[in-house]
Design brief:
There is one protein chain. The chain contains twelve helices and 13 strands. By secondary structure, the protein is an alpha/beta fold. Helix content is about 35%, strand content about 15%. The chain starts with a strand and ends with a strand. Helix 3 packs parallel to helix 4 (about 120-130). The structure holds (4S)-2,6-dioxohexahydropyrimidine-4-carboxylic acid and zinc ion (ZN). (4S)-2,6-dioxohexahydropyrimidine-4-carboxylic acid (DOR) binds near residues 41 and 107.
């Protein structure tokens, strides 16, 4: 049997929510990843160090005892975030970044930032204190076509932020376009990007051709094939600016299969397997370890992990759902076959 063993990876962009759903999703992430950057877009959002430490404990409670997993916490930026909170976060060993959601851009972003320029003093503090800024890079202008929102964000906001704060470490989260890839490639070394499995594996036909498929709907929305190809090229290039961030985002099936379905793909059940499939298709399995296990840790200035995980070339069928009743989640590739399978540790 063909196998692939790599250093234990990290997921540098993950939603796990809180409450009962944690028990369903945490084992999926913790069995393959040593650490994950935890998104703060709860209801209400995680805006203070105190809240993040409480949330961190809740996450740890949901990790199976036999697994070793470290949540890396982030705080949600709002128009009322203070420089004092940024100082507290920078001093905490548990807080690793701030997340900027333009208000209204995506799930639970209502408390996000309506006027990005107005929080430039916060970016200055983050630059000075050397704590990274994670950006959901989409404009929220109703007049802007949803497929253009990432591209337009680059010219409208991102270049302004990188020009004004040249020392600020920034992750452009879940890049989905050739333009974002090019922006990150040409930017200084302190500008990086995460890439999700769904944006490497699928183009918008998967979501819209032959019927509307809500489980492929996430934000930023999946784009046309030329963009997917640019993302695959970046992810498999060995450029340390691009690293793994699943953006796995659990929503109950009933809220996805709806007249107004929520944005988010659940991929934690098979994250590494999905990435392996994308890298294998590009004939670049040798580049998976850097992308999954080294570059993200290096960017966040964390030690690289010491253990390993092994994938086996064994086909398996993804179940139709995880979790019970109203909280049940439909995973990416539900009822479909995957080519790689995580070996039991
Ligand atoms: O599709 C998405 N879902 N994109 C995001 O930015 C947020 C996420 C979520 O929290 O569900
Ligand atoms: Zn996200």
């Amino acid at each position: 049997m063909k196998t692939l063993t790599i250093t234990k990876p990290d997921d540098l962009h993950l939603h796990v929510r809180n409450g009962a759903v944690l028990k369903t999703v945490m084992p999926h992430t913790a069995r393959q990843f040593a650490r994950a950057i935890i998104m703060p877009n709860l209801k209400p959002p995680v805006t203070t160090v105190v809240q993040a430490l409480i949330y961190r404990e809740e996450i740890l409670q949901a990790v199976p005892a036999e697994l070793d997993f470290t949540p890396l916490m982030t705080l949600y930026l709002t128009g009322s975030t203070t420089v004092a909170e940024i100082k507290k976060a920078a001093e905490s060993e548990y807080i690793h970044a701030f997340k900027l959601y333009p208000a209204g851009a995506t799930t639970n972003s209502d408390s996000g930032v309506a006027d990005i320029k107005a929080i430039y003093p916060l970016f200055a503090a983050m630059e000075q204190l050397d704590i990274p800024l994670l950006i959901h890079g989409e404009v929220t202008d109703d007049a802007c076509d949803i497929f253009d929102r990432e591209r337009v964000f680059i010219d409208t906001y991102l270049t302004g932020i990188t020009d004004n704060f040249p020392g600020l470490r920034i992750v452009v989260e879940h890049v989905t376009t050739a333009e974002a890839v090019q922006f990150v490639q040409e930017a200084d070394a302190n500008i990086a990007a995460t890439i999700t499995p769904q944006h490497l594996l699928f183009n918008r036909n998967a979501m819209l051709a032959g019927g509307i498929k809500p489980h492929y709907y996430c934000l930023p929305i999946i784009k046309r094939e030329s963009h997917r190809l640019a993302l695959v090229k970046a992810a498999t290039s060995g450029n340390p600016k691009f690293f793994l961030g699943t953006d796995s985002a659990p929503h109950p099936t009933s809220l996805k299969e709806s007249a107004c379905g929520c944005a988010g793909c659940y991929s934690a059940h098979a994250a590494l397997e999905l990435y392996a499939e994308a890298f294998e298709r590009a004939d670049a399995l040798d580049k998976l370890e850097g992308f999954a296990s080294f570059y993200g840790a290096d960017f966040y200035r964390l030690p690289r992990n010491s253990g390993t995980v092994t994938l086996e070339k064994t086909a398996w069928k993804v179940p139709p759902a995880y979790g019970e009743g109203e909280l049940s989640i439909t995973p990416l590739k539900a009822n479909e076959e995957l080519r790689w399978k995580l070996a039991k540790g």
